[in-house]
Amino acid sequence: MSAHTRKLYILFFAFFALVPAASVVSCALAQEEQQPQPPQEEAAEQPAVPQPITVNGDTVEYLSDSKEVSATGNVVLVYKDATLTCRSLRVNTQTKDAVAEGKVRLEDKTGVIEGEVVRYNFQKRTGEIIEPIFRMNPYFGRAEKAYKTGDAEFIAERGYMSTCGYDHPHYRIKSRRMTFVPGEKVRTVENTMYLGGVPVATIPKYERSLKEPFMHVQVTPGKTKEWGPYILSAWRYRLAENLSGRIYLDYRSKLGVASGFGSNYTTEKFGKGDFKYYTTNEKPDDIPPGEKQEFERHLIRWRHKWDIDPYTNFVSEYYQISDEKRKAFGNTHNFLKDYFYREYEKGAEPLPYALLHRSFTYSSLDVLMQKRTNHWFNQLEKTPEIKYTMPSLQMGDSPFYFESSSAFANFNQKVEAQNTDLTVTRLDTSNKLSLPSRVAFVRLTPFVMSRQTFYDRDVDGGGVSPRTVFYAGSDASTKFYRIFDVKSDFLGLDVNGLRHIITPTIAYSYNHEPTVSRSHLKQIDGVDAITRNNSATLELSNKLQTKRKQKTVDMLDFRVNSAYTFKPKGSGSKLSDIVLDLKFMPYGWLTLDSDATYNHREDYFSAANYDLNFSLGKNRTLGFGQRYTRKGTNEITMGFSWWLNPKWKFSVYERYNAKEAANLKQGLREQEYKITRNLHCWDVELLYNVKRDEGESIYLVFRIKAFPEMEFGFDQSYHSPKSGAAR
């Protein structure tokens, strides 16, 4: 372990050390006598109205001297949210003490308890149960004796618990003492775990928070070509109510040992966050002799969120990655990709940032700081960027609306392979005035806008005048609809009236050539690339609606849009590609979602996609899809899922490329087959996946239904690692 790693672990544990750790006779008993009310001027609050105990049974007798009720045969007692059924009962109407015998069942908001003899106080919610059978969600169990110590706790002695509700559960944990705090936690001592009737493990103590969906220990074995046989483990800890996390210890036969820890914390005044540290001294077995044989690689990630007040919040993320292997062999190696693939998919090159947001009555302010911490990434620093935004706001009693936005930023474009960085300071401000109105049946919103941008230097490093861009335009839309009195079940369509809605929209916008050409400016983003524009965006929406089960539903939604550009330099006016978007829902069990881009100049579709999904009852689904690009691929997908019976489910997914592309061969690209077996309290899944040019994977997982996140699995990849194995 390196000195750097040792220091981090020392700091980690030092920090933790500072944290503190039906009825024949029915008798509804009378209300208890009311106490005299204090005078109105002295009463701080009215006392709660006493609740009666209601007893029904085949025979019910009330003893006025002792104020007791005795009942026999099909007895039902109700008090507040508690219900008790039994064969015989004695209950005191004043003290609320009850003794029930014979197939006793007590149910309240904490769970269900069954037993032969129950002594219980309904007011204090305390009592004793002999030979109970209980359910404390999500656990079932039996015991020799149990106690309720109130709403907050239930204790069972010398019994077992399981999430399997069978009389002979598939698995169980036998314990000397089990303590349940409903909705909070369960704690047991002197445990033996059984699979069927076979003991498999001894556990001195077990405690689980019912608020957390994770296991205390997770172990994932497997094998990949890059890692070889491996085993990943995560040990969950909780040092205080506001501080928990995991400790990682992993072994990969081809790379060595890796370790780390993660922490989730919550503070009373400064928000919450999480911290993660993961490190390895990687020792690959494929490095040629004479080369460096050991590479230190680690990740530090810290995320924090703080809601300062109802109008202000702060969020930040910090990443620091050290990677000697990347330094030695280049950008083909990425620590996130090799060890945390899911995070890599979200962002291959994470950029640290801190963002402060403040909302005002009619505006908002954002302050963003981005600073590169990993010098081999090409990233844009903002040190800082300050944005002030005021959305469209009516100007007094006038019909005009005003909208404004301003952004000041210091940009620094960091590029790994270059010695010089692209640096510029910029202030960009826009002010827009609009007049929403109605002309006949048309909604019309004309506007004018002025945009000024100030730069500290031009592309050559010299001075530059402020850039001004003037905008003008208008949005126009209307809506036509017609209702057809049609009621038909032709082809099972269940049409109860039809409403056809047509919505045409035109959005026209013009801006002149900026006073400073883009060729004189350093290009950071789209703000610097503004040129003259004179165009209109056209859209036509067609929608068909009907009523089903007294609710309005969309049967069809078809949109067509395009942009028309007026006389651009060097050419005449032209219409851009036409974009079509269709959603068709003729039945509740059939949906079609499709979009396409049509090049009308060359008369072809440049892209087209669709998804057709069938819901064939509760137990079967079928879907087809296609992803087509004229200059790329033409992939066809199919997915099918079927519960063959209540115990077996079969799923299949196929992806086929029907077109040869530059980097993608024609043929079957991916196949996935999955079999799921319902074992009452467990689900077992066996998955086989084949990806062309990548390899084959087998994945076997056992999952407890009561805790879907608690799973134990084994996966093997013959050619490449399965992305789900990384955490």
Describe the structure.
The chain is mainly beta and 727 residues long. Among the domains are: 52-209, lipopolysaccharide transport protein A fold, CATH 2.60.450.10; 442-576, no CATH class. Helix content is 4%, strand content 62%. The chain has four helices and 44 strands. It has a 27-stranded mixed beta barrel. Strands 1, 2, 3, 4, 5, 6, 7, 8, 9, 10, 11, 12, 13 and 14 form a 14-stranded antiparallel sheet that branches. A hairpin with a 2-residue loop joins strand 4 (68-79) and strand 5. The model is unreliable at 4-48 and 708-727 (pLDDT under 50).
Question: Any key phrases for this structure?
Answer:
727 residues; mainly beta; lipopolysaccharide transport protein A fold; 27-stranded mixed beta barrel; 14-stranded antiparallel β-sheet; 4 helices; 62% strand
**What is the CATH C-level name of the domain at 52-209?**
Mainly Beta
- CATH fold assignment of the domain at 52-209: lipopolysaccharide transport protein A fold
Q: Give the helix tally.
A: 4
Name the CATH superfamily assignment of the domain at 52-209.
Lipopolysaccharide (LPS) transport protein A like domain
Mean pLDDT reading: 82
Biggest sheet features: 27 strands, mixed, barrel
| Oligomeric composition of the shown chains | single chain
Structural class: mainly beta
Report the uncertain regions: 4-48, 708-727
Helix content: under 10%
Choose one word for the global shape. globular
What would a concise description of this structure say?
The chain is mainly beta.
